[in-house]
Amino acid sequence: MSEELLNKVRRILLYIAFLLAAFLLSYFLAYPLGYSPLGYEVVKKEENSVVVQSLNTWGIEEKRVTYQPPEGDEWRAKALVDRIHAQAMEYHLFFTAIMVAIFWVGMDVLKGKPLGKVLVLSCFYVFFSGLSLIQHLGGIKEILEGSIY
After folding, report:
1. How many CB atoms within 10 Å of residue 97?
2. How many independent structural domains does the chain possess?
3. Phi, psi (5° rounding) for residue 144?
4. pLDDT digits (tens, 9 = 90+) for 66-94
5. 111 lies in which domain range?
6. Is the pTM of this model over 0.85?
């Protein structure tokens, strides 16, 4: 093997190792630790109501909301609980995107690319997962406020 080919293989293996590490670290943040800034938690689930805990920017309890769906729409309480449980996946993708963006910024800066250009391009890594997370949390908030009928 030539030295150039060996360096490419090492670089690819480094990228794969970092992607796996970012994926695993964000998994532990989102699932076992349950870190969800500006997210929601189900505190108590009853037959016709759900008590939801909103979280602040640091993932600490902020306020409790009791959601009682309108008569005939009891399925909304189950849909709310399902959406709240699914937010961990959205956070997992978001945290992974942030870590990958940080990695690529570091790699590109080390290669000698200008920091401003690199930061602008790295924002695109986070943009789509952040947009998906915002839409998901907005859907939960709309259900809690009762504006979806």
Report:
1. 22
2. 1
3. -65, -35
4. 898 888 888 888 889 999 999 999 999 99
5. 3-35+74-145
6. yes
